[in-house]
């Protein structure tokens, strides 16, 4: 009796293996071929983007979206090979889509935010932006996140949903930017003396724009000094090198004319006598 059941069990197992093995083999082959085709399609897509000079921001977004769609299609093909009917597959995907949608509302908001960023272009890959006190160069915009690289080499990843709904300071949008330099002087120093020194220094820099011309104005009066703001315009890509060079050049010119930075002072009256 025991041998009968054992033989019966072996027949069932072997029958099951004979029916499953071809599907398993075909599924594995479909997976390997599908992965190869996806890589081939992505390479062709990248070459097409490069040929037609597609915007880098749009390029990274479309690549991420294409990978998502292609792998979804591949899994659908494997499911059909295994024996899952198309209607069942759609029902499963629909139910899974609702569940995932409820669980990942933030991700859906990020996806919509990525579309808004690409549609309205508040910034693009390569721009210098400031978002929520984070300043850096945009490295990538994918379907869910935007990545910045800061000046000190850090990578900051921000959700597209948040970025699309907050203030973005794009410092690369315009071709020229204004440099603001602040200097303080003692009241004994005359504005008529420091203004030409500062202006001549700013104008002598080779990267400073001729129009608008550099200017320098009295900005405020303090307890023991006054503040001067000097301004000049440069090309956006030359902003930071020119800023540091101008700051050093003005300091050097003031030193050459014997004009020192102010030292805070207090007057003490003895015995209440004035």
Topology:
Blueprint (H helix, E strand, L loop, with lengths): L1 H50 L4 H27 L3 H18 L1 H16 L7 E4 L2 E8 L3 E5 L5 E5 H5 L4 E2 L5 E11 L4 H13 L11 E7 L3 E11 L3 H18 L18
Antiparallel strand pairs: 1-2, 1-5, 2-3, 3-4, 6-8, 7-8
Helix pairs in contact: 1-2, 3-4, 6-7
Structural notes for this entry:
This protein has helices at 2-51, 56-82, 86-103, 105-120, 160-164, 191-203, 239-256; strands at 128-131, 134-141, 145-149, 155-159, 169-170, 176-186, 215-221, 225-235. With 274 residues, it is an alpha+beta fold. It has three domains: 2-103, Helix Hairpins; 114-170, SH3 type barrels (Roll); 176-256, Alpha-Beta Plaits. α1 runs antiparallel to α2 (56-82). The chain is elongated, with a radius of gyration of 33 Å. The termini are far apart. 15% of the residues are buried.
Comma- or semicolon-separated keywords:
274 residues; alpha+beta; single chain; Alpha-Beta Plaits; 5-stranded antiparallel β-sheet; Helix Hairpins; 3 domains; 3-stranded antiparallel β-sheet
| Second rung of CATH, namely the architecture of the largest domain | Orthogonal Bundle
Q: Give the integer mean of the pLDDT values.
A: 83
Radius of gyration: 33 Å
Low-confidence stretches: none
- Per CATH, the class of the largest domain reads Mainly Alpha
How do the helices and strands follow one another from N- to C-terminus?
A: HHHHEEEEHEEHEEH
How far is the first residue's CA from the last residue's CA?
124 Å
* Structural class computed from helices and strand pairing: alpha+beta
Task: Give the beta-strand count.
Answer: 8
Strand order of the largest sheet: 4-3-2-1-5
How much helix is in the residues?
Answer: 40-55%
Q: What global shape is seen?
A: elongated
Quickly count the domains. 3
What name does CATH use for the topology of the largest domain? Helix Hairpins
Note the total helix count: 7
Strand content: 15-25%
Let me know the largest β-sheet. Answer: 5 strands, antiparallel
């Amino acid at each position: 009796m025991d041998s009968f059941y054992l033989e019966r069990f072996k027949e069932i197992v072997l029958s099951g293996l004979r029916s499953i093995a071809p599907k398993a083999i075909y599924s594995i082959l479909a997976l390997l071929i599908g992965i190869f085709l996806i890589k081939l399609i992505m390479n062709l897509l990248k070459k097409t983007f490069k040929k037609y000079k597609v915007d880098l921001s749009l390029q990274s977004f479309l690549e991420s979206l294409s990978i998502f769609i292609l792998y979804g299609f591949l899994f659908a093909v494997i499911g059909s090979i295994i024996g899952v009917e198309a209607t069942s597959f759609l029902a499963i995907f629909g139910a899974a889509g609702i569940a995932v949608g409820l669980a990942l509302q933030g991700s859906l908001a990020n996806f919509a935010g990525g579309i808004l960023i690409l549609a309205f272009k508040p910034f693009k890959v390569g721009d210098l932006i400031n978002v929520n006190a984070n300043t850096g160069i945009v490295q990538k915009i994918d379907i869910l996140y935007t990545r910045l690289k800061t000046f000190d080499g850090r990578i900051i990843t921000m959700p597209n949903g948040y970025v699309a709904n907050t203030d973005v300071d794009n410092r690369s949008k315009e071709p020229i930017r204004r440099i603001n330099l602040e200097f303080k002087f003692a009241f004994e120093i005359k504005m008529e003396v420091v203004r030409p020194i500062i202006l001549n220094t700013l104008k002598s820099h080779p990267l400073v724009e001729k129009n608008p011309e550099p200017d320098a104005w009295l900005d405020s009066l303090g307890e023991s000094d006054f503040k001067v703001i000097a301004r000049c315009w440069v090309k956006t890509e030359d902003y930071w090198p020119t800023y540091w060079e101008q700051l050093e050049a003005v300091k050097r010119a003031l030193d050459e004319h014997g004009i020192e930075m102010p030292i805070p002072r207090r007057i003490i009256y003895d015995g209440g006598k004035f």
